[in-house]
Each structure stands twice: as C-alpha cells, then as structure tokens.
Write a structure and sequence with these properties.
Blueprint (H helix, E strand, L loop, with lengths): L4 E4 L1 H5 L9 H14 L3 E6 L12 H7 L7 E6 L2 H10 L3 E7 L2 H8 L3 H18 L2 E7 L12 H12 L5 E6 L6 H14 L5 E5 L6 H10 L4 E4 L19 H10 L8 H15 L7 H4 L7
Parallel strand pairs: 1-2, 1-8, 2-3, 3-4, 4-5, 5-6, 6-7, 7-8
Helix pairs in contact: 2-3, 2-11, 3-4, 7-8, 8-9, 10-11
C-alpha cells in the first residue's frame, strides 16, 4: 500500500467524552491546527441533541468559523433527519450516520432500535444524495457490544447488506469499545466487502485493550485504505470500563511513516497539537509518541 487516508475525528469523537469542555474558540483552533498539519478530512462536530452531548453543543458556531481550505472536507455526526437538516444548514461537506449492530446498544446509545436506525439511514441517504453531501455509515459496536457481548460476524454483515442498499459513499467498521482483534478485522472487512461491492471501507479503532493499532494495521493489510485517528489518542466509549481512547494520530503516523506509506500529514505538527491539547484538557493524553519521540530523532 502506497498511501492511506487519515480522518481526524478528535474534534468530535475525541472531545465528546472529556469532562473538561473546550471552548468554541479552542475547538476552532484545534481544527485549524489539524488542517495546517495536512489532515484533509476532519469530523468536526456532532448534531446529536445538545443536552445528550454537551461537550459538542456548539456545532453550528464551530462550523461557522472553520477554515474553508480547498481540498478539506468537514463531517458532522447525524442520527436522524433533524440532525441532517442542522448539518446541511451548518455547511458540512459530509455526514456520518451511526447504525449499531445490537438492539441494546442502539437503544441506549442512539435512542432507537436497529430497525428504526436503518430506516433513518435510508431517509438520510435519499436527502443527502439530492444535496451532494457525502455519506458515511458507521457500524457501531461491530466487534462487540458492552451489553450483549460478542456480535456474530454474520449479524454485522447482514446489517451492512441492508445499509448498502441505500448506496452510502463509505462504510466504517467501528470497534466502539475496543474489544476487536486482527482476525476479526479481516473477517469483517472481507465479509462486508462481499455484500457491499464497490463501497469503500473505513476503520475506526479504539485502543481500550491495546489492540487498536494491531487492528488498524490489519485493516490496511486487507484493503481498508481509510482510518479514523484522534490527536493525542483521546476519546473512548462511555459504556466501556476505563476507556483508553481512539488510536492516536501521531502513533499511527509514526508506524505509517516508518513503513514508507504516504499520508500527507506532518507528524511533528501533530505532536505539537497533542501537547497543546494536553494543556487545554488539563491532563496527559494517552498517545505514546510524544513521550518517546520520533525515530530517528528529529529537531
């Protein structure tokens, strides 16, 4: 593989679980720095109900001030048509729609059952297509559910088949609670590709049990060319004990750079962002590269 597309999801998925709320100004600065570092797809905001995710209640204000740079695409998380209308009015370039793989996770996390989530996706797909906005569907808890336990690969593939009927631009396989292993990644990626031919796959991995990076590299090995990453490795599902965050942008970059894989992202710039983020959050971020440094060392 010669190149990999990295999607920075820190401004949305990373910040949504933080106890310290960043100001709108800080969120915009975070996004500006990510763009300057070379990241070209950024999941910037969420259009979930503000009272449910107060960390991201200022979505419209953030979108009003993000830098509009040619080639940079901003995504917003939406769960239903109301969220889509807010996202379109705010000027997003793409939307990320979540469909959970188990009934209990769907009801607790999204407030609706799986069937209703699939119906919402179908409605969103039709309206988004008419506006030219790109659509991604994230299969949440695709590797395991905090309430129902293991999720059968066949169940995930069956849901993916139904998602594919409405023609998403991308399907993301999400290890939401960080329980997956590389063999699962290969089975799911191959299975979903078979029922959604021609739909690009994306990987979203959490490092809760220290398998996130192995899973990310396994995804690349089986043809997934797009990965979600988070500056500093912040984030994590609130439904899992001791969440350790998403795979860190800088730690993934280090591996890819050493492998000779092009990303267009400056790892040293990301390290600076991570240090800034640690100050704003009042804690050390989970990413490791900032502690050990690059190799060979750079100045």
């Amino acid at each position: 593989m010669h190149s990999v597309e990295l999607i920075e999801v820190g401004p949305r998925d990373g910040l949504q679980n933080e106890s310290r709320l960043l100001s709108t100004v800080d969120k915009i600065e975070l996004i500006e720095c990510c763009v300057a570092a070379g990241l070209r797809r950024i999941e910037a905001v969420s259009f979930a109900r503000p009272e449910k995710v107060p960390q991201l209640a200022d979505a419209e204000d953030v979108m009003a001030s993000v830098p509009r740079v040619p080639g940079v695409s901003y995504a917003g998380l939406v769960l239903n048509r109301k969220g889509l209308y807010r996202a379109l009015a705010a000027g997003v370039d793409e939307v990320n729609v979540v469909v959970a793989t188990t009934e209990e996770f769907s009801r607790r996390n999204l407030g609706v059952g799986v069937e209703d989530a699939l119906k919402s996706w179908t409605e969103i797909a039709a309206e988004a297509a008419s506006t030219g906005v790109r659509t991604t569907v994230t299969l949440a808890a695709a590797f395991g559910c905090p309430f129902s336990g293991d999720v059968a690969v066949e169940e995930v593939i069956g849901i993916a088949r139904r998602i594919a009927e409405a023609r998403p631009d991308e399907i993301s396989l999400a290890d939401t609670i960080g329980v997956g292993t590389p063999d699962q990644v290969r089975r799911l990626a191959n299975g979903v590709r078979a029922v959604a031919p021609g739909v690009p796959l994306r990987g979203h991995f959490h490092n809760t049990r220290n398998t996130g990076y192995a899973n990310a590299l396994a995804a690349l090995d089986c043809g997934v060319a797009t990965l979600d990453v988070t500056v500093g490795g912040i984030g994590g599902c609130p439904y899992t004990p001791s969440p350790q965050g998403n795979v860190a942008t800088e730690d993934v970059l280090y591996a890819l750079d050493r492998m000779g894989v092009r990303t267009g992202v400056d790892v040293n710039a990301v390290l600076d962002i991570s240090a800034w983020l640690s100050e704003r959050l009042g804690r050390e971020v989970p990413a490791l590269l900032g502690r050990a440094g690059t190799f060979p060392p750079t100045t």
